[in-house]
Design a protein that fits this description.
UDP N-Acetylglucosamine Acyltransferase, domain 1; 2 domains; six-stranded mixed sheet; four-stranded parallel sheet
Length: about 220
Amino acid sequence: MNCSNKALTDLLLHQLRNYWTDIDEDCIASAVDSAMEMIEKNYKGLPNRRYFNDGQVVFSPYISVQWMNFLYRVSRAIYLKNGYCDSADQVYYLNKIMHSVDWFYAIDLPEHFLCEHPLGTILGRAEYSDHLFVYQGVTVGGNRKNGELQYPKIGENVMLYANATVLGDTRIGNNVIVSADTYLINAEIPDNCIVFGHSPDITIVNKSETQIKEYTDYIWGWKK
């Protein structure tokens, strides 16, 4: 099902009214077009027919991983236009209520961002690069090092499996798969590898860029 932006706006406002009485409808409605432009860029050309089929982007508010992405994009668009404000907070909070994810609008998630079963994911302050994929229970955020808060830097085409944790001054290269239950803090992860374990006792399995992209081709459609 592909809804018009007007229908999506009406649904979003209806959901927000279930929790708050002071909705700035004009402010929220004005962000929907920008959010859907980002969704179009995000999903265009993907190999999964739930996102892109017969040359057209597919979007449905009834697919939860799409709706939570949409809510993040709406809150982000409001923030970029108005700064910190109640409307951005309300949409962000709605996403937490509905989907148990914490994707704060001041955090700049990449243009190509996907997830699967992402309940409990916390994507905190970090430098994110394009083609990020996360599963459930993932945590990304800061940690104090030498008396200062340090935040991760994550490269392109990174996959974070269930319950992966990335904290502090961690640097993850391009084309990296972070295995389930891996805990990284103040770690240096090179390009083109699979990593697992708990810092400082981690194991890095080196791969080629081609091998990692073959593994993630079902998500991003590199071969198209």
